[in-house]
Specification:
Elements (H helix, E strand, L loop, with lengths): L11 E4 L5 H12 L3 E6 L2 H10 L6 E5 L5 H15 L4 E4 L15 H30 L1 E6 L12 H21 L3 E8 L15 H5 L10 H12 L10 E4 L3 H4 L3
Helix pairs in contact: 1-7, 3-4, 4-5
Amino acid sequence: MGARVRDLQGKTALITGASRGIGLGIARRLVAEGTRVCLTARKPEPLEAAVAELGGPEHAIGVPGKADDPAHQEEAVARTLEAFGSLDVLVNNAGINPAYGPMLGLDPAVLRKVFDVNVIGTLGWVRAAHRAYLGEHGGAVVNVASVAGLGPAANIGAYAASKAALIQLTAQLADELSPLIRVNAVAPAVVKTSFAAALYEGREEKVAAGYALGRLGVPEDVAGAVAFLASADAGWITGQTLVLDGGLLLKSGV
């Protein structure tokens, strides 16, 4: 773990899409900072393994379900409060990218599903957390967007459009929920996870050559930034999207 951030000890975070990859990396960092966490994911078995890795029910609980299901959102928030008594940080990490190819060839139903999970689902999580705790007590929301949301992205246009909408949603919610709740986002480039494997597997060295820092990201790179934005160290930051790209945009654009 890197340098500690302020004021996460004893807090509680709910992290969506957290059984593996970036979400689990964020959970590891927050638990190391003394934060208790509720993890959500679709599949119960990997979620149970993640909770066990993080130290079990004293430090973490898991609530399986679909990220865009309002009933699941309400249940996860309620169980977080039941287990830990507070909900100080919401990390919206869950996202999907099932479509590959030019936008005109996409099935509209697939496009709707991408937005249901990546954008409307995120808003649903904020609503549920706001209604149950954040609206009265305040806190921080961190959304996991993508550099793909900053410009055209070949063959992943649906995902890119949803992340552009998420970046705008971040700013909108920051304005509407201030001054009690801070809302920020991170926008990673390619991070070495199974979710992004198709973008680099078998050609990692070639892909990494396009980054000023000469490597792809790892979950810990995102986790440190999320911990910062969730902490008192970022107490005067809201409505911002922090680009985490290893210098990709310096070299070649999205």
